[in-house]
Automatic annotation (TrEMBL):
Listed CDD domains: HTH_ARSR
Domain of life: Archaea
Lineage: Archaea, Candidatus Nanohalarchaeota, Candidatus Nanohalobia, Candidatus Nanohalobiales, Candidatus Nanohalobiaceae
SUPFAM superfamilies noted in UniProt: Winged helix' DNA-binding domain
Protein name: TrmB family transcriptional regulator
Region span, Disordered: 268-293
Alphabetical list of InterPro entries matching this protein: ArsR-like_HTH, TrmB-like, Tscrpt_reg_TrmB_N, WH-like_DNA-bd_sf, WH_DNA-bd_sf
Residue intervals of the Transcription regulator TrmB N-terminal domain: 11-78
Gene, per the UniProt record: trmB
Organism of origin: Candidatus Nanohalobium constans
Length: 293
């Protein structure tokens, strides 16, 4: 007996191909069987059944008995899943070790040298492009933050402050520990107060909002951008409410755009922003509200 299609589809999620799924589920119904018997039950070619059972044994789902003819014993599903988990963990640890060893090798120094030579031949303004999807954007921002030497300036949204804390707090903490100036400009509200309380330990955070009078009636801008050392930047091109897979951002290593366009804008907004500790009127707050007794 072979499992239902729904169950076979679930087995695919843990890495079993079609032949492996059929033979493993059939073997579970018999506990012990030969390759020939399983081949007849599942319509898996007999010549393939042996290879499939060997593969299942390597994955920890089957035990091979020393008998003639050779027999195979099924591992209970919960234990089989645990075996696969442990195998994946070991494979991941081995791969991470390989990456760390490669990172410290002379080969990386050579590749870095080739990269530096290539960059010297390119106008910094040409080092730009688009990023699609939340994961890619966060990954690129993380790379930029790791390269920071002097300053990191972030203007973000109410939701963006929570995202910044969730995805980049460790990198911002490391930057502060290295003496890098970290400034974050965002609406600080009840919805991100917790993130603000944590972030102020490693960044200077200012509240973006309530500045209409200072800016002669102009509303505070809505948007997100990050400036690194005044020579690299990312800028969000989509609203917070789009699906994470549709997030789009622009990145550039143009020092002109970073230093002459975005940095002055950031500094003006920073100058007209307020200290969240002073309790200005913020989104989500009603002017005149007083703290609870």
């Amino acid at each position: 007996m072979v499992a239902s299609k729904e169950t076979l589809d679930k087995l695919e999620d843990i890495g079993l191909n079609m032949y492996e799924r059929k033979i493993y589920s059939a073997l579970l119904g018999r506990s012990v069987s030969t390759a020939g018997e399983l081949s007849e039950m599942t319509n898996v070619p007999r010549s393939r059944a042996y290879d499939v059972l060997e593969s299942l044994a390597e994955k920890g789902l089957v035990v091979i008995k020393s008998s003639s003819p050779m027999e195979y014993v099924s591992i209970p599903p919960e234990q089989a899943i645990e075996n696969i988990k442990q195998q994946h963990k070991q494979e991941l640890e081995d791969k991470l070790d390989d990456l760390e060893n490669f990172k410290d090798s002379e080969a990386v120094d050579e590749l870095e040298s080739l990269y530096d030579q290539g960059v010297e031949l390119v106008d910094p303004a040409e080092m730009s492009g688009s990023l699609k999807g939340e994961h890619q954007i966060n990954q690129h921002m993380g790379t930029m933050m790791k390269d920071a030497e002097e300053s990191i300036k972030v203007m973000t949204s109410e939701k963006g402050l929570n995202d910044l804390m969730e995805n980049h707090s460790d990198l911002l903490q490391e930057a502060k520990d290295q003496g890098i100036n970290v400034q974050v400009l965002a609406p600080v509200t009840d919805q991100n107060q917790s993130s603000y309380e944590k972030m102020k330990d490693f960044a200077e955070v200012r509240h973006l909002g309530g500045m209409e009078e200072k800016l002669e009636g102009l509303d505070a801008p809505e948007g997100e951008f990050t400036i690194i050392d005044n020579d690299a930047l990312t800028m969000s091109m989509t609203h917070d409410d789009v699906h994470s897979t549709q997030d789009t951002a622009f990145w550039s290593q143009s020092d002109h755009m970073a230093e002459s366009v975005l940095d002055p804008m950031f500094n003006v907004l920073w100058h007209h922003s307020s200290n969240p500790e002073e309790g200005p009127e913020k989104p989500g707050k009603t002017p005149g509200d007083s703290p609870a007794e």
